[in-house]
Amino acid sequence: MKKVLVLTDNVELLSTVANNLEGNGYDVEVTQSAPQALRSLQAGAYDSLISDVDSDNTDGMELARIAAGLQRRIRVILVSAKRIQSEFRKFPCLKAPIRVSKLMKMLKVDPSSGKGKRLTKAQPGNRASGY
């Protein structure tokens, strides 16, 4: 089972994303703070990190950089309600409100292939609200 860490201070988005991921067979850990997310990343291996860069109490971009350094094979996906900045381009970024189907597609791409190869067919999904 793929393990995903989700960081956002938006409770509705956190719930929507977590429920959709769990419904698609992912082991999901959620947090609303970057320090807690960092502790989780240091304590165990994750396949993916979904990090909100617009949170009030977190620095999602800095966490993404640290996560990529700690766990070389981790897939980092950033979420931003604002215009996607060029500094975010190092990682895939979803503009909020996100489509869960697009998130699922991004999670199923093999990050080590370098070619965006899909591992499995993406599941249809709904739009996550709350942004």
Walkthrough of the structure:
The structure is a single chain. This protein has one domain (3-107): Response regulator (Rossmann fold, 3-Layer(aba) Sandwich). It has helices at 11-23, 34-43, 60-70, 100-107, and strands at residues 3-7, 27-31, 48-52, 75-80, 93-95. The chain is globular. It has 131 residues and is of the alpha/beta class. The protein has a five-stranded parallel sheet, sandwiched between helices. Helix 2 (34-43) runs parallel beside helix 3 (60-70). Helix 3 (60-70) links the parallel strand 3 and strand 4.
Strand content: 15-25%
The CATH class name reads Alpha Beta
Which stretches are poorly predicted, pLDDT < 50 over at least 5 residues? 113-131
Domain unit count: 1
**What's the helix-strand series?**
EHEHEHEEH
The general outline is globular
Cross-sheet strand order for the largest sheet? 2-1-3-4-5
Name the structural class: alpha/beta
For the structure shown, list the relevant keywords.
131 residues; alpha/beta; five-stranded parallel β-sheet; disordered C terminus
Briefly, what is this?
With 131 residues, the chain is α/β, with parallel strands linked by helices. 32% of the residues lie in helices and 18% in strands. It is built from 4 helices and 5 strands.
Strands, helices and their partners?
Blueprint (H helix, E strand, L loop, with lengths): L2 E5 L3 H13 L3 E5 L2 H10 L4 E5 L7 H11 L4 E6 L12 E3 L4 H8 L24
Parallel strand pairs: 1-2, 1-3, 3-4, 4-5
